[in-house]
Amino acid sequence: MTGNSDSQTAWAYHEATKHSYASIRADRHFLDWENRPLPFKIYPTVEPVRLPDELRQTGVAALSAIASSLPAQTEAVPDLEAVAQLLYLSAGITRRRKYAGGEIYFRAAACTGALSEVELYLVNSDLAGLAAGVYHFAPAEFGIRQLRAGDYRGVLLEATGGEPAIAHAPVIIVCTCTYWRNAWKYQARTYRHFGWDNGTLLANLLAGATALGLPARVVCGFVDGNVNRLLDVDAQREVAFSLVAIGHSDIAAPQTCEKIPSLGFETVPLSQREVDYPLMREMHAASSLETGEEVRAWRGQTPATEFPPPAGALLPLRAFSDAEIARSPAEQVIQRRGSTRKFAGSAIRFEELSTMLDRATRGVPADFLEPLGTQLNDLYVIVHAVDGVPPGAYVFHRDRGALECLKEGDFRAEAGYLGLGQELAADSAADVFFLADLRPILQRFGNRGYRAVQLEAGILGGKLYLAAYAQGLGATGLTFFDDDVVQFFTPHAEGKSAIFLVAVGHSAKHKNG
Fold first, then answer.
1. Three-state secondary-structure class, residue 209
2. What is the pLDDT of residues 109-157, one digit of tens each?
3. Which of 329, 384, 309 is nearest to 353 (CA)?
4. What is the assigned CATH class of domain 37-298?
């Protein structure tokens, strides 16, 4: 039995990092602002090459881009301008704001605490305007630093056990996560945030790829040590979390037999000192895969979600049709996306909520979700103010395209409590909770299934963000009191675990403006 197969580590981590009213009150953690980590990874001895910064106007509506993906065999090879656009829409700086102590950077994708612990690397073949190599994306300079010259896609092909999308992808984006940059605020719970923050970034990336006419596939199964060695990251501090195959070419990735030498590039320390939370690294190590055979056995065979039959009447969604959807292009919606700081408390239309739920859940192209449209997380909704929908608690039946009412009532106070006592969850129009039955997921995927379920929740949450902003609404991701969330939706949610929460509604700033 491998470490990944023994899913007790995932269960132990999940239980140890739950929030409760008592645990929050007992937590003595405080933010040491003098020791706040840098928001960027910096290689001081490697000069960045600036990327072209002209944003292509695709004309593809955001609500279309988040709801679809191109077939994997679609012949498409991005050029440097397309690669630059994908990097910008995923992890680029969209706004800057100066304050007395320095400067705040607002990134394209939502991130817990705005700490941006996800780093992006390119592994590519020769492209128009970009030589084959391994590169690190430098958002501050909007450039890339070359770490290795040559075509190293074969290393990733071997690491993914021959994943077909990797074999024929001209560009592979590797997403890594840095422990301390997020743990500075969130401590050991950071490993959950890896999935959320990588996922919201991937929602942008997938939408951007679709808008540019590029197939994309998320790959969560790979030999961790091989990918980390290729990037030459210090795995005690930074680890590969997901890969994304971009484009498709008939020219397959070349085999790479040579040993990958260490680079030893200097990087600027994130802080004067780092606090170690071993629980996160134990979770990552226990969910790591060691051989190509193990990776191949890990992929696919997604456990099916089994809902009990509806106990009452269903409320069919009234999503906007393709002809009725807001036509705001994907790249423009991503640029203006933010995280709502205060909701107005006013009602949204049922068509708007329906469109968010419908467009966000049409399927994620990923190696742990087969066939396309399979989903690990179930969506539960507390409706506060949606025209034509009685306030109450609902569960979303994707296969039926309908909401089932679990209980009616004004639950603003309860929602505010469940969202860690934050007014955002009480003042929104609706709160979408992601819950998952971890038992079949961990039985099928082992400890790595915990990565997958968090990553999927982040992707779906990121799509909800974009669907809200495409319709002129606001959204924000929130944390929660784990067991209290499950209890609120029980008996329907009995045995499940709370994974993520996104609140949606009218922003008070825009509503009053």
1. helix
2. 999 988 999 999 999 999 999 999 999 999 999 999 999 999 999 999 9
3. 384
4. alpha beta
Give the integer Cα–Cα distance in Å for 320 and 47: 48
Residues 217-240, mean pLDDT to the nearest whole number: 97
Q: Give the CATH class of 314-512.
A: alpha beta
How far is 194 from 203, CA to CA, in rounded Å?
14
**Residue 388 near residue 415 (C-beta atoms within 8 A):** no
387 CB neighbour count, 10 Å cutoff: 12
d(CA 377, CA 460): 9
Nearest Cα to 475, choosing from 333, 362, 368? 333
Q: Which residues contact 42 (CB under 8 A, 6 or more apart)?
A: 138, 140, 267, 268
Beta bridge partners of 246: 171, 216
C-alpha 376, offset from chain centre: 14
pLDDT, tens digit (0-9, with 9 covering 90-100), for 311-324: 878 999 999 998 88
Q: What is the pLDDT of residues 21-75, one digit of tens each?
A: 999 888 888 889 899 999 999 999 999 999 998 888 999 999 999 999 998 888 8
Domain ranges of the chain: 37-298, 314-512
